[in-house]
Amino acid sequence: RIDGVLKGNVASKAKILLGPEAIVEGDIIANQADILGRVLGKVSVNDLLYLHGKAVIEGNIHTSKLQIEASASFNGACHMGANVVEFG
Question: What is the pTM of this model?
Answer without folding.
Answer: 0.88
